[in-house]
Write a structure and sequence with these properties.
Layout (H helix, E strand, L loop, with lengths): L2 H29 L3 H27 L11 H8 L13 H25 L3 H27 L2
Helix pairs in contact: 1-2, 2-5, 4-5
């Protein structure tokens, strides 16, 4: 696999993760029992969709600079920054679902931080840092929701 294919694969992985998170939050919104929870989940879903768009645009533009990622980056990011799957046993327990969502957002933030650290191009690094920050904000919003359930 060429270096270009690896870079594209990492970004495609991130797009897939954002799409999964979009579906995850939309599913939570559809089943929310209160309008403020539904609005929160719809907002988070919309932001995940925005992230997907940014990443898709990077893929289309080929905007990962050459040399930005080394050979070890792909496997490391796929392992460390991957999806935190929703355990089917948790579907009936909203508190556990929120706890799982917090883990998903934490993994996403860490993924983008690792991507940013590998970028030699400042614009691309800043894009990944913004994504990491937005995912960390999602984690905080979900933590607040989790705390309110106590």
């Amino acid at each position: 696999m060429s270096q270009s294919d690896k870079k594209r694969g990492i970004l495609e992985f991130a797009v897939t993760q954002e799409d999964r998170d979009y579906e995850f939050f939309m599913n939570l919104a559809r089943h929310a029992d209160q309008s403020e929870k539904r609005e929160l989940f719809e907002r988070l879903a919309g932001e995940e969709l925005s992230h997907k768009g940014k990443l898709s645009a990077m893929i289309a533009a080929g905007s990962i600079p050459s040399g930005a990622l080394d050979d070890a980056t792909g496997p490391q990011l796929f392992t460390d920054g991957g999806d935190v799957p929703l355990d089917p046993k948790l579907k009936s327990d909203f508190r556990n679902i929120i706890a799982n969502a917090i883990k998903r957002e934490q993994a996403a933030s860490q993924f983008y931080e690792k991507m940013a650290a590998k970028m030699s191009d400042d614009d691309t690094r800043q894009t990944f840092l913004r994504l990491a920050s937005e995912e960390a904000n999602h984690q905080l919003l979900l933590q607040n929701e989790f705390d309110s359930l106590s």
